[in-house]
Specification:
Strand content: under 5%
CATH architecture of one domain: Alpha/alpha barrel
Order of helices and strands: HHHHHHHHHHHHHHHHH
CATH class of one domain: Mainly Alpha
Distance between the termini: 85 Å
Structural class: mainly alpha
Helix content: 40-55%
Shape: globular
Number of helices: 17
Number of strands: 0
């Protein structure tokens, strides 16, 4: 009897334990979060777009699905690009004097080209801590940080290399501007406690100091190349991006840099100053568009807010008076109205087919100008970016080399530099959140 009782008790305990174990069994596997190569028009399960600014989420109507042909072109370009990395982690474009040398391993690494490649790897989904090409990105980052840290005190550039393709065509100090741009992008993706964060911020502040030290009284940057307006434009972009990340940017220097770019475009006559743009309208108007994008967006959003509050008539056009009614002082209103007018006029010219032809064929300067225009439209929260994207990516896919690279046909011919820039254009819709946040208005 006791034996039977013991058996029943054991069986009951076993059943209870089994039920308890079942109640704590591992849940059904979660669907892996999709890697989103680009934002898509409708939400995709597992693909999360975080808040971008002022409590507003990413508007699905603002994004585009990446076409299959573009995705294929991106992957071919990535494979080619990672194979071009030098042993020291950098990437090189080669010298202006030896443009016929197209082998990426036969030229020294330079910071400007390395920064462009690093930005492309990041935009394609790699970070220092993850992604297919995290190792390559980490090596490129170490190369750039090392260049900044080794620069002499009081210098205005971070390399002792001279005569590179990029320096000759854009400007002698382009390396520091593009490196600063990369470091800002990097910091935007690094958690506060990341072991590289403090070092990257120190390097960014060093670059900012160099850019400001090299600034001329008119807001341009010393050391003009063939198309020096592009060096000055990227320096302005770098200061703007650095400020967004909390770097020590002098507001006067940033205003000067923006004003120099805006002054290249005359709203009343539609004329463009191309003396420092190699006589090419495209180079100048892409810079004007980019340097006025943040302020133009502020105007749109502030006026729309004032209309909702009844301080500005619903059918009132943007004007100095409307901006004053929205809460700006007279001087602020005049400055912002000018930026608004420059942006809206310059962006049209920057996308005009006659202007897009640039020098007549594509060099690295054309690719850079296309990139500036596209980023301007996104930063400005301008829906016309989608038309620009479809047209520009279609053109780039059509001229990609069979090995996955691109090269210029004049001036900046380097396949490494041109491939990195083209990849940044193709994948710009991967970066919509970051670009929108950079142009976000912080209302007083």
């Amino acid at each position: 009897m006791k034996k039977h009782l013991i058996i029943l008790i054991v069986l009951a305990c076993a059943s209870g334990v089994g039920a308890l174990l079942l109640s704590f069994r591992a849940p059904a596997p979660l669907v892996a979060r999709q890697h989103c190569p680009a934002p898509v028009p409708q939400p995709v399960p597992g693909c999360v777009f975080k808040t971008v600014y002022e409590g507003e989420g990413l508007d699905s109507s603002f994004v585009l699905r990446t076409p299959d042909a573009v995705l294929l072109a991106e992957q071919k370009a990535l494979r080619w690009l990672v194979g071009a990395q030098a042993g020291n982690g950098g990437y090189g474009a080669g010298s202006h004097a030896r443009q016929e040398v197209r082998d990426p391993h036969a030229v020294p690494a330079d910071p400007a080209t390395t920064a462009m490649v690093a930005m492309a790897l990041m935009r394609m989904g790699s970070t220092l801590d993850g992604g297919t090409y995290a190792q390559q990105l980490g090596l490129a980052t170490e190369y750039l940080l090392g260049q900044v840290e080794a620069a002499p005190k009081g210098a205005v550039n971070i390399t002792d290399l001279t005569g590179t393709q990029i320096q000759t065509k854009l400007g002698a100090n382009i390396d520091v501007a593009l490196t600063a741009q990369y470091l800002s992008n990097l910091l935007a993706r690094l958690p506060e406690q990341h072991p590289k964060r403090l070092r990257a911020m120190r390097a960014l502040n060093t670059c900012v100091d160099m850019i400001q030290r090299a600034q001329n009284s008119d807001g341009s940057v010393k050391g003009d190349g063939w198309a020096g307006v592009l060096q000055s434009s990227f320096a302005a972009n770098a200061l703007e991006a650095a400020k967004a990340q909390g770097a020590l940017v002098d507001s006067t220097a940033l205003d000067l840099a923006r004003n120099y770019q805006k002054a290249n475009f005359n709203v009343n006559s539609g004329s463009v100053a191309t003396e420092r743009a190699a006589g090419i309208t495209l180079y100048a108007v892409s810079g004007s568009t980019r340097s006025s994008a943040v302020e133009a967006r502020e105007v749109n959003e502030r006026v729309a807010k004032a209309k909702k509050e009844g301080r500005v008539a619903k059918d009132a056009p943007v004007s100095v008076q409307a901006l004053e009614d929205a809460g700006y002082t007279r001087s602020e209103a005049e400055k912002l109205n000018t930026a608004y007018e420059v942006y809206n006029a310059a962006k049209v010219q920057a996308q005009d087919q006659r202007v897009i032809s640039g020098f007549g064929n594509n060099g690295g300067e054309e690719f850079l100008s296309f990139l500036q225009t596209g980023e301007s439209l996104i930063i400005g929260k301008d829906n016309t970016w989608k038309t620009w994207y479809e047209q520009t990516t279609g053109r780039l896919v059509g001229i990609q080399n069979n090995d996955g690279s691109w090269n210029g046909h004049h001036c900046i011919t380097s396949p490494v530099f041109c491939t990195a820039t083209s990849l940044l254009i193709l994948s710009v819709n991967n970066d919509i959140e970051h670009l929108l946040a950079q142009g976000a208005v912080k209302y007083r």
